[in-house]
């Protein structure tokens, strides 16, 4: 099931694409290039990954435990910042060959620029 929801946020129309209720992505509807946010926009109960440093849009979010393939939603090799907005656990991002890249958790919530490991994440593993 795919559902598109439109919301007006800070004067910018945002499209939310929700797939099977476990993933969503947001991007400004009229933006020609990605926007950079001052603070992460990541709802409570999700971990988010951003297509630009400093939590710029578009972004995707997941919440399930265990392994997830970012290619399922077209997000492989495009993560530049991450934010963990859950009360416990952690999530590690991996390359396609299984090499761990970076981890965020309840105690280390954000990485605003994953350099030099930008645009290399293909999979995630969340420990709940």
TrEMBL record:
Residues 1-31 form the signal peptide. Keywords: Signal. This is Peptidase inhibitor. It comes from Micromonospora wenchangensis. The lineage of its organism: Bacteria, Bacillati, Actinomycetota, Actinomycetes, Micromonosporales.
